[in-house]
Design brief:
Blueprint (H helix, E strand, L loop, with lengths): L5 E13 L4 E12 L4 E14 L5 E15 L4 E8 L14 E11 L2 E10 L2 E13 L2 E8 L4 E10 L2 E10 L3 E17 L1
Antiparallel strand pairs: 1-2, 1-12, 2-3, 3-4, 4-5, 5-6, 6-7, 7-8, 8-9, 9-10, 10-11, 11-12
Length: 193
């Protein structure tokens, strides 16, 4: 028979990013399952706290559920779909909060991959492109561009056993540079053949 190597894991992460005065803190609980040799699914629950400066001076809290799947066409090519804030599917109050992202990942070598994504949000379509380079398996260097406010972004990530730390920055054309950091811990992992 065909052997399927299943990978499943759950993780807990904390992320913080902000511009001058604006701060977003996100707590993320996620789980992923390799359903077959080529198909992977995942879900996440995010608690988001945003601090908005200026005349608005307010804090907002949101809870968001996300669903995603990835199909590996080959060792070098993958297709993905992500539905963000799935609670908006049944909401007549917030129907525009639903975000759908489709993407393609091309991996020309073992330590480089390129992505291109299209995002549908609030009756608009945005595009994202990026490249990730791994000088060694535990270090990731990223750079990308998004048509959402014409932002350039970059990041550097480190992983060690179950822990990962990621630092990032975005260049917003009006708000300037935003920096962020996230820490993630893999709670569980299961592998069977």
């Amino acid at each position: 028979g065909t052997e399927i190597k299943k990978h499943s894991f759950a993780s807990l992460g904390l992320s913080q990013m902000g511009f001058n005065g604006y701060k977003s803190t996100i707590l993320i609980l996620s789980a992923s399952l390799q359903a077959s040799n080529r198909f992977r699914i995942g879900i996440s629950l995010k608690g988001i706290n945003e601090k908005i400066p200026g005349d608005l001076k307010q804090n907002t809290q949101n809870l968001m559920g996300n669903f995603g799947c990835i199909y590996e066409c080959s060792n070098k090519l993958s297709l993905g779909l992500s539905i963000n804030d799935i609670s908006a599917l049944k909401s007549s109050v917030r129907p525009n909060d639903l975000t759908i992202i489709t993407g393609i990942k091309f991996q020309p070598s073992s330590n480089v991959f390129l992505i291109a994504e299209a995002e549908s949000r609030e009756q608009n379509i945005f595009f994202h492109t990026g490249m990730c380079y791994f000088p060694v398996p535990s270090i990731a260097c990223r750079i990308g561009y998004t048509t959402t406010n014409n932002q350039i972004h970059a990041g550097l990530g480190f992983s060690l056993q179950r822990w990962s730390i990621d630092a990032s920055c975005k260049l917003h054309p009006y708000l300037g540079v935003s920096s962020g950091i996230s820490i993630c811990y893999k709670i569980s992992r299961n592998e069977s053949q």
